[in-house]
From TrEMBL:
GO cellular component: cytosol
Function: Catalyzes the attachment of tryptophan to tRNA(Trp).
A GO molecular-function descriptor: tryptophan-tRNA ligase activity
Taxonomic lineage from the root: Bacteria, Candidatus Falkowiibacteriota
Record keywords, A-Z: Aminoacyl-tRNA synthetase, ATP-binding, Cytoplasm, Ligase, Nucleotide-binding, Protein biosynthesis
Short sequence motif named 'KMSKS' region, residue ranges: 193-197
Gene Ontology biological process terms in this record: tryptophanyl-tRNA aminoacylation
InterPro entries in alphabetical order: aa-tRNA-synth_I_CS, aa-tRNA-synth_Ic, Rossmann-like_a/b/a_fold, Trp-tRNA-ligase, Trp-tRNA-ligase_bac-type, Trp-tRNA_synthetase
Matching SUPFAM superfamilies: Nucleotidylyl transferase
Similarity-based family: Belongs to the class-I aminoacyl-tRNA synthetase family.
Cell compartment(s), UniProt: Cytoplasm
Binding of L-tryptophan, residues: D133
Native source organism of the sequence: Candidatus Falkowbacteria bacterium CG10_big_fil_rev_8_21_14_0_10_37_14
Subunit composition and interactions: Homodimer.
Name of the featured protein: Tryptophan--tRNA ligase
Length: 323
């Protein structure tokens, strides 16, 4: 069975884009993969975090994995900082295989650093820690959004370089990028990916009440046209809403276009609001099933399962280096 590994930073509520872009894909993959899903808390601290909020966010992300349908009997869910090998391997890769020029080229770093007056060294080094996450588990496949492709490619390059310089050690991973059809754009700016950092009305949080979500959808950007047609270049807002509806109701966009031929935007949005509300209510119901203690127990159990895997790979790395 192939191994998949992925993770999300515990930096706040997940939104609909995270759900369709990442979580829902993981849920499908777990049935025929050895699946490892990480709460990447060491990545979260590359930018300043409030102590209490971070602790709560770690539990909240793990709970979202569970509510989305990651089954702890099938998949491993664990917290990055519970496994010391992640930072150890990151340090080793820093020294052996990673070069300053690799990191200077990373778009996510350039983006994030431009928002900080004096960014942390950790923010710069972020992709190396991510490479360590992936390489520690002999990962075959990394399901991620398109924005993470550059990082997974770096992990591949580092693995190849290390194997070349020190002997066969790492499995070479590849990225699995979700299909374009599941890429959710911002509600108030449908030309960019949905993101909570753009603003409250840009995204629907998985914790939004149906009322709040409905308001955001009714306010979503459309166009001065009246036609409900999938045309991302000319009608990004309507196309994005069609994508959301097609995923939620499991219908083809073509069929939705037909269904809404003589329909106004208001009525179309109302239907999306209803579907989203149903989805959120269901998700939030499932999330409520897991107390903090239960989530922490699942994370502790995950830690036990991944510990020997990480230790084996790191021991091999140390041997190859003569440490
Ligand atoms: N950098 C990823 C993101 O921002 C999160 C992440 C950290 C990750 N380590 C990973 C994703 C390992 C996949 C595999 O989305």
């Amino acid at each position: 069975m192939k191994t998949i590994f992925s993770g999300i930073k515990p930096t706040g509520d997940l939104h609909l884009g995270n759900y369709f872009g990442a979580l829902s894909q993981w849920v499908d993959l777990q049935h025929d993969h050895h699946s490892i899903f990480c709460v990447v808390d060491y990545h979260a601290i590359t930018v300043p975090q409030d102590k209490k909020a971070l602790h709560n966010n770690i539990i909240a992300i793990a709970r979202s994995y569970l509510a989305a349908g990651i089954d702890p009997k099938k998949s491993i869910i664990f917290r990055q900082s519970d496994i010391k090998e992640h930072t150890e391997l990151a340090w080793i890769l820093n020294c052996t295989s990673a070069r300053m020029s690799d990191l200077e080229n990373m778009t996510q770093y350039k983006d994030a650093a431009s928002k900080q007056i004096n960014p942390s060294v950790g923010l710069f080094d972020y992709p190396i820690l991510m490479a360590a996450d992936i390489l520690l588990y002999n990962t075959d496949t990394v399901p991620v959004g398109h924005d993470q492709l550059q990082h997974v490619e770096l992990a591949r390059d580092l693995a190849k370089r290390f194997n070349h310089d020190y002997g066969e050690t790492f499995k070479i991973p590849s990225a699995l990028i979700r299909s374009e059809g599941s890429r959710i754009m911002g509600l108030d700016d449908p030309t960019k990916k949905m993101s909570k950092s753009i603003g409250e009305n840009n995204c629907i949080s998985l914790n939004d009440s149906p009322e709040v979500a409905t308001k955001k959808i009714m306010r979503a950007a459309t166009d001065s046209d009246t036609v409900i047609k999938y045309d991302p270049a000319n009608k990004p807002g309507i196309s994005n809403l069609l994508t959301i509806l097609s995923i939620l109701e499991n219908k083809k966009i073509k069929d939705l276009e037909k269904e809404f031929t003589d329909c106004g935007y208001g009525q179309f949005k109302q239907r999306i609001a209803n579907s989203v509300s149903k989805f959120l209510t269901n998700f939030q119901e499932k999330a409520k099933h897991y107390s903090d203690e239960q989530v922490l127990t699942i994370l502790a159990d995950g830690q036990k399962q991944v510990e020997p895997l990480a230790a084996t790979v790191l021991a091999k790395v140390r041997t190859q280096l003569g440490l």
